[in-house]
Structures are given as structure tokens and as C-alpha cells.
């Protein structure tokens, strides 16, 4: 007996998902099935694949909202080191992205009137130092002068350290009105989805960038940071350390 249309779609969906170890987004999965079977109605494809993780729990699961992954790769992708990524990290230093991001904060995102690259141990404590620190001052042309705002950013080239980077970005809210975490576009879909959700919960900004090209990082905003009222004791404590450079 010939397979039904839904059986054909389901089989193709599993094949596509299995060929994507990092997982595949629902919309992309539907589009790729449609490309393989252009005569099949798109609604039939949607109706067949939307709950694959429920109908085929031994083969398909969702590591994050809207992403399908084959169970063969469960917990495997995030723990494997990619030799190509390792090679790229050896060639490109994280510090190479600090000043480009500082410039992007000022010229493209317009969150700051001035931003500088820091990194290292400028703040001299265990809570860490932002990789980029910016300030937004009122302009002379502003009729209503807004208060000064401090913007911090943690840039992470190593995709294995994203949890630590998120924690650092959270800690910067102690002395910053806005805080951003900046991660490679090549991060797994699961990591990006989880950070997206966490950033929205905690008011942290999320930026993606091309980690292989410090000259053209192609920064892309995924979540804009919410304004936070920092503790002014810590604002003054840390701003004294960068007063000459930032103010």
C-alpha cells in the first residue's frame, strides 16, 4: 500500500531534522518540506509537523520554543567542541570586537553619546569589568535634558561561556541603566532561544554578531535592553575609575 501524503511529509520532516544536529526552526522545516513537495498544500504540511515532538517522542524533541531536534543529538551539540570554531577563536581575539561594538552603540543603536572598550580588570573586583562601557549625555540641542545613563556590555566569543556571560551582564545592572550581552550568531539555536527568553525576563539586551569578522561584525539587535535604575553608590564607585576616559 502506497504511503499517504501525511506519512510522506512526516518521513521527510524526520529526515530534515536529523540532518540538522543543532536543530531547525519550525518555519524553516515547513519551507524545506514545501520545496521538496511543491504540490502539497502548505496547510497539510503545517497540520502534519506542528506536533512532531508529541507524535514521535522517541525521535523528535523541542530543546527550545519553536525548534525541533532529533533525539540522536540530545545534549550532544552543546557539549561538543567545534574544531572550526576553535580555529577561528585562536585567530580572532575577543578584544577585537570591543571597539567596533562601542562604535555601534554610538552610531547605529544610538544608545550612547560616547562608548569605550574596557575589559580586563579595570574595576578591580570579582564582579567583573564590562567589555564596553558607554554613557548617554543630553545634547546641547535637547530642549528637555534627560538624565545621564550608563550602558554596559559583555561580549562573548566562546559559545561555551554564554551562561557566565549572562550572569556578568546581570551584575552590571548594579551600576548601569542598561546592560547588553553580545554573542556569536553561530551560537546554537537552543542557546539563542534560551538567552532570548532570559533577556526579556531580566531586561537585558541581546545582540548577535559575526564572530569571524571583527572588521564587519554585522551586529544585530535581538532584544533591546530595558532601562533599569542602578544603585547610585555603585554608579559613582565605578565611574570614578573611568572618569577621565568616559566623561
Strand content: 15-25%
The largest β sheet comes out as: 6 strands, mixed
Q: What is the first-to-last residue Cα distance?
A: 77 Å
Q: Given the structure, what is the number of helices?
A: 10
Radius of gyration: 22 Å
Helix-strand sequence: HEHHHEEHHEEEHEHEEHH
What is the third-level CATH name, the topology of the largest domain? Restriction Endonuclease
Order of strands across the main sheet: 4-5-6-7-8-9
Overall CATH architecture of the largest domain: 3-Layer(aba) Sandwich
The mean pLDDT is: 90
Describe the 3D structure.
By secondary structure, the protein is α+β, with helices and mostly antiparallel strands. It folds into two domains: 5-79, Arc Repressor Mutant, subunit A, CATH 1.10.10; 85-246, 3-Layer(aba) Sandwich (Restriction Endonuclease). The chain is 37% helix and 17% strand. It is built from ten helices and nine strands. The protein has helices at 5-18, 26-36, 42-49, 52-55, 83-91, 98-107, 162-171, 189-202, 232-239, 243-246; strands at 24-25, 60-64, 67-70, 114-117, 132-136, 149-155, 178-184, 205-209, 220-223. Strands 4-5-6-7-8-9 form a six-stranded mixed β-sheet, with helices on both faces. Strand 7 (178-184), helix 8 (189-202) and strand 8 form a beta-alpha-beta unit. The longest helix has 14 residues, at 5-18. It is elongated. The termini are far apart. Residues 77-90 have low confidence and may be disordered.
Amino acid at each position: 500500500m502506497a504511503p499517504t501524503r501525511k506519512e510522506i511529509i512526516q518521513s521527510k520532516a524526520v529526515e530534515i531534522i536529523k540532518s540538522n544536529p543543532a536543530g531547525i526552526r519550525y518555519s524553516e522545516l515547513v519551507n524545506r518540506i514545501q520545496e521538496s513537495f511543491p504540490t502539497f498544500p502548505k496547510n497539510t504540511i503545517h497540520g502534519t509537523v506542528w506536533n512532531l515532538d508529541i507524535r514521535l517522542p522517541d525521535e523528535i524533541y523541542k530543546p527550545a520554543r519553536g525548534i525541533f531536534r532529533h533525539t540522536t543529538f540530545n545534549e550532544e551539540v552543546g557539549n561538543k567542541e567545534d574544531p572550526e570554531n576553535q580555529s577561528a577563536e585562536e585567530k580572532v581575539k575577543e578584544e577585537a570586537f570591543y571597539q567596533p561594538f562601542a562604535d555601534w552603540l554610538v552610531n547605529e543603536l544610538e544608545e550612547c553619546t560616547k562608548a569605550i572598550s574596557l575589559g580586563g580588570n579595570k574595576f578591580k573586583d570579582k564582579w567583573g569589568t564590562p567589555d564596553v562601557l558607554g554613557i548617554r549625555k543630553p545634547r546641547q540641542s535637547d530642549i528637555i535634558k534627560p538624565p545621564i545613563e550608563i550602558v554596559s556590555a559583555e561580549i562573548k566569543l566562546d559559545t561555551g561561556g554564554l551562561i557566565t556571560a549572562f550572569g556578568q551582564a546581570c551584575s552590571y545592572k548594579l551600576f548601569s541603566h542598561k546592560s547588553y550581552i553580545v554573542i556569536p550568531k553561530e551560537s546554537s539555536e537552543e542557546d539563542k532561544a534560551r538567552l532570548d527568553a532570559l533577556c526579556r525576563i531580566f531586561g537585558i539586551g541581546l545582540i548577535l554578531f559575526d564572530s569571524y569578522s571583527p572588521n564587519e561584525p554585522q551586529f544585530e539587535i535581538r532584544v533591546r535592553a530595558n532601562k533599569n535604575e542602578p544603585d547610585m553608590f555603585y554608579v559613582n564607585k565605578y565611574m570614578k575609575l573611568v572618569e577621565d576616559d568616559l566623561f
